[in-house]
Specification:
- The protein is of the alpha+beta class and about 260 residues long.
- It has one domain.
- The protein is built from six helices and twelve strands.
- The strands form two sheets. Strands 2-3-4-5-6-11-10-9-8-7 form a ten-stranded antiparallel beta sheet. The chain has a two-stranded antiparallel ribbon with strand order 1-12.
- A hairpin with a 7-residue loop joins β4 and β5.
- α2 packs parallel to α3 and α3 runs antiparallel to α6.
- It is globular.
Length: about 260
């Protein structure tokens, strides 16, 4: 064996160690525990949706702060607000029975809503799940059960507090809230549904709010992603033990690369 050659057992061990390092660089966490979404990711998501769905058309306003997207039927519309902060409404979806009728239902999402949740929302809209709620229909028990079944299946804690029903994750960091008072006033300003994640439902990191007649199929799919969805994220670097010898840093550390975001439509 020549100097510098690696014996086969040592080579295999090195491959295993390198593979282990790669595997541990990312961890799987629930969707609601994922890092706050980058606004540029929201923009890319909407751009991709419009590029891959010819039945939808989008345009920017003169101020460049808003993009509107409309289905070819003119009965389902999306508004994307680029100037909205992370905790304010950045997405609004509205459904109408006809192009000139009153609104049937609407849904809003804040700027920090995770990408997987928004992907499912757009997927549901593309599948036509915005037209299956009759205008005259009030929310019934069957629709309530259907919309919250994923949380029940996941074992989330169910509580009733006055007019509110809650389904809360075991760690308390996410939940679904139903307002029975708002449900009886479909034309009111209060949301009937809240899907949220963060410290509390009153101070969420992000939330989706929906009106009474929002289709239970759409809500159930969003709830499924919230309760069962998972994403991979990088693990934090390990902190060296101060009592162990560590290799000193290089004399000239590399300059961190600057991240740039771009947005186009």
């Amino acid at each position: 064996m020549h100097r510098g050659d690696i014996a086969l057992p040592d080579l295999n061990r090195r491959v295993r160690l390198e593979q282990h390092a790669t595997d541990t660089e990312r961890e799987t966490v629930p969707v609601f525990a994922a890092d706050t979404a980058d606004p540029a990711d929201h923009d890319t998501l909407l751009d991709h949706f419009l590029d891959t769905h010819d039945e939808w058309a989008g345009w920017r306003t003169w101020s460049d702060d808003l993009t509107y997207a409309t289905h070819e039927s003119q009965t389902l519309r999306i508004e994307r607000d680029y100037s909205a902060p992370a905790t304010e409404t950045a997405w609004t979806v509205a459904a109408y029975q006809t192009p000139v009728s009153d609104r049937m239902w609407h849904l809003t999402a804040t700027g920090a809503t995770p990408i997987p949740i928004l992907q499912d929302l757009l997927h549901e809209l593309a599948d036509g799940h915005g037209w299956d709620t009759p205008v005259s229909q009030f929310l019934d028990e069957a629709s309530l059960i259907a919309a919250t079944q994923p949380a029940t299946d996941a074992g989330w804690k169910h509580t009733v507090e006055g007019r509110w029903m809650h389904w809360t994750a075991p760690n308390g960091e996410a939940g679904i809230q139903f307002d029975a008072f708002a449900a009886q006033r479909p034309n009111g300003v209060l949301p009937t549904w809240l899907l949220w994640a963060g410290p509390t439902s009153d101070h969420p990191t992000w939330e989706i709010a929906a009106s009474t007649r929002t289709p239970s199929t759409l809500l159930a799919n969003l709830a499924e992603t919230l309760t069962h969805g998972a994403v991979a994220r990088p693990t934090p670097p390990l902190t060296p033990n101060a009592h162990h010898h560590t290799t000193p840093p290089p004399a000239h550390p590399a300059t961190a690369a600057k991240r740039t975001n771009s947005r186009s439509l």
